[in-house]
Known about the structure:
This protein is an alpha/beta fold. It is built from 10 helices and 13 strands. A 9-stranded mixed beta sheet has the order 5-4-1-8-9-10-11-12-13, with helices on both faces. Strands 3-2-6-7 form a 4-stranded mixed beta sheet. It is globular, with a radius of gyration of 18 Å. The two termini are 35 Å apart.
Amino acid sequence: xxxxxxxxxxxxxxxxxxxxxxxxxxxxxxxxxxxxxxxxxxxxxxxxxxxxxxxxxxxxxxxxxxxxxxxxxxxxxxxxxxxxxxxxxxxxxxxxxxxxxxxxxxxxxxxxxxxxxxxxxxxxxxxxxxxxxxxxxxxxxxxxxxxxxxxxxxxxxxxxxxxxxxxxxxxxxxxxxxxxxxxxxxxxxxxxxxxxxxxxxxxxxxxxxxxxxxxxxxxxxxxxxxxxxxxxxxxxxxxxxxxxxxxxxxxxxxxxxxxxxxxxxxxxxxxxxxxxxxxxxxxxxxxxxxxxxxxxxxxx
Length: 300
């Protein structure tokens, strides 16, 4: 079983109370793939510019990620610059965004990838997400992430897309913005009515809420005493969830709980370093060790 991921591959400039990094490999698809590759083969669909550093491309290849559908556009690569203040590391202040080749991006999926049954549509324009979905032959499990930009400016497209997906992942702010519900349980129920059978609402340092018609649970986050850079934590979480479900090959209460625990565990590594400093070096032995520590916090 393989996982196909659509999203952004970006160059990130990030400043936090712990320092500053420039031209890091970032983007929703990159972070998600770096997590999911621990469980399954990952095929990445995205676009970069001709200015994109070869070292980042080679890095992704060394991690075993299939780049057959990574498109090289004629413009500049997508760039994001953000800052996190020590008062609230959960919120990024966007200083600059350069869309570059994302403008007019029309995803291409290689023929040998169109039969992949597990798909995650990471954060990108919902019309682009729909375009990719229409290329796939017989997907069995489709996951979706979005953000406030698309909720505010392309809500009809997003709602139309949600009718076709199985799993929807959102943070608490996005869930409230999309549904108009302040209570997260009510927000989860409203999201379920939009179409997806499986709803995951991320609550940052406060953990995660899972909701479906028959299965409901909530887990805390792994306690971290020093967050260095939260960029990509949500995508890392989603990659762990989707990667594990792809490997498991079935959806039930046991696999869903395990997937969320794995996603939570891997995301906890992400925030301990800048960019992919921590997740790029992860092994399953390290993940299993921390997963056990997380379960010790939960069980009694």
